[in-house]
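Hi all, long-time lurker, first post. I run a small reading group and we've been trying to get comfortable going from sequence to structure in the token notation. Rather than ask abstract questions, I figured I'd post a concrete chain and ask someone more experienced to write out its structure so we can walk through it together at our next meeting. Sequence below, copied exactly:
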Amino acid sequence: MIRLHHLNQSRSLRILWLLEELSEPYEIIGHQRDAKTHLAPDSLKAVHPLGKSPVIEMDGQTYSESGAITELLIERFAPDRLRPASDSTDYGHYLQWIDFAESSLMLPLMLELFTKKAGIEDNEFLNGYIEIEKTRLFKYLDTSVKGKSFIVGNQLSGADFMLSFDLIILAQRQKLDDYPHIKQYAEQLASLDSYQRAMRLEAEHDESKQA
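-- Answer (accepted) --
Happy to help. Here is the structure in token form:
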């Protein structure tokens, strides 16, 4: 049995969706962000030293990092269905997009969030960097998903699970109107039955939405 330590409103949603798509037996152990600091609770530190989510327990081992967990679960349970063949030309692109989600794309988005939270939105250097990086990344991604339902090989893969977290949220907040192909791609992912099931589970385990 797989155990997912799930933190509300976090990257853990990627793994929750993936587990729903895999249809393998699993258990959700919910953890709640602090209402004031928005940080993860100490309960996660008892599971993994970093105290972050997602974390899974499987076969007596504990694993962290959403990209690593995504690849691990797909290799174990759906290598023929949720990733390109390792000897195909698509495989390198698949790995690229998995890393792109957390390395290239996440940085300017997190900087933008943190500058707003810290009340330093008038910082000329940070604002310039964020805007330049976001524009460059989104233009690249918009071209890459043009006419596609999925990012690699026109079939659902681990790369889509990794990209979904940021892009679906941005689409819901009307932040992708200048990038119609990304918007269409994100909305397509959000319409999948397994994603919808994951969102219902997320709502059930998010105490902040139930207050």
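A couple of things your group might point at:
The domain at 90-192 is CATH 1.20.1050.10 (Glutathione S-transferase Yfyf (Class Pi); Chain A, domain 2).
The chain has two domains: 2-81+195-206, 90-192.
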